[in-house]
Amino acid sequence: MDETTRLAGLIQERIDDTLLAHGSELSELGPDAEPLLDEAAAFLAGGKRMRARFAVLGYRAVRPLDLSGESSGELDMVLDAAGALELFHAAALIHDDLIDRSDTRRGRPAVHRQFADLHARSGWRGEADHFGLAAAILLGDLLQSWADELLQRACDHCPDRAAALAGRAHFNRMRSEVAVGQYLDVVEEQRPGFVSEAEQLERSTRVLVYKSAKYSVEAPLLIGASLAGASQEQEQALREFGLPVGVAFQLRDDLLGVFGDEQVTGKPSGDDLVEGKRTVLVTLAREALPATQQHLFDEMLGDASLEAAQVEMLQRTIRDSGAVERVERMIARNLERAETALDFAPLESALKDQLIALAYRAGSRVS
């Protein structure tokens, strides 16, 4: 078994064990609680585990960690931190689907739709959609709580108290930035119109950085590295590598949100257009349009009643504007910047190639 496959298996095993332990603790609540716990397991059964993998690489870039042998206290600590990131990510996705009114995630009904369907099948009183919303909020909150417990367990088992406090501080900051970044995204969708290109790009980039980019790559790297006892110089090197990788990751996500294949992404093609996301891609596209076409573009963006033909027209407009090529160049520049940041970084040399390989995978993924 190669190292990547073993790591994926170890991370999934840690997640499964965590969910099983919590399920056992809560069994006395009775069978009515089972759908909530079952959905937690189903939602966390798949995924790319990108954040968990960056956390492990962050640790190994500072301190050797053997993944091939028997489990050790050190490996358990790192896997707890990696698992915490995946639980937090799952919670963020569940809440994100609520905020965006998305009906699907990873090719299956979103969590709030799953519980709305449960309500309808059960013939319960009240509104099925409201029940679905309430259940999804609670499941997201539950997973955030379990993520915090798992991260705290990792910190408690870290032999270096200063390193443990640093890891906890990075995790706490990540949670705050994601919540506020998500709020900024919601604010942008509610504004009555676009502002000047420079200001709109600044706003769109700020949302991109704090809602996704930092917590997708930079924060996991820093959490892993800090638990390994990283120096300030090592953390700074990982910041300079991680942020541009995170930006590339999210720019690719923005492209997939407009042009992604539904059979691969598990989300309807053009979903970001229906939701009215004011991404860097959308901002660059509309600024390249003549005034009359720009007005029509603005009217259609975010219209929940858009038909497939209208979504295709918006997609074609964005392609023809040259914005896709500009975003692809931005992705390439960020990945190059990240790679350069590792040239003289005080990190384990053998891990630099793995960091770069995962960075390019993050920036070129199709789902």
Which helices and strands, and how do they pair?
Layout (H helix, E strand, L loop, with lengths): L2 H23 L8 H10 L6 H11 L12 H28 L3 E2 L2 E2 L1 H12 L5 H29 L4 H30 L6 H31 L4 H28 L2 H4 L5 H5 L4 H8 L3 H10 L7 H14 L1 H19 L7 H16 L3
Antiparallel strand pairs: 1-2
Helix pairs in contact: 1-4, 3-4, 3-8, 3-16, 4-6, 4-7, 4-8, 5-6, 6-7, 7-8, 8-9, 8-12, 9-15, 9-16, 12-14, 12-15, 15-16
Structure explained in plain terms:
The protein has 367 residues and is mostly helical. It has one domain (3-359): Farnesyl Diphosphate Synthase. 76% of the residues lie in helices and 1% in strands. The chain is built from 16 helices and 2 strands. The protein has helices spanning 3-25, 34-43, 50-60, 73-100, 111-122, 128-156, 161-190, 197-227, 232-259, 262-265, 271-275, 280-287, 291-300, 308-321, 323-341, 349-364, and strands at residues 104-105, 108-109. It has a two-stranded antiparallel ribbon. β1 and β2 form a beta hairpin. α4 packs parallel to α7 (161-190), α8 packs antiparallel against α12 (280-287) and α12 (280-287) crosses α14. The chain is globular and about 65 Å long. The two termini are 25 Å apart.
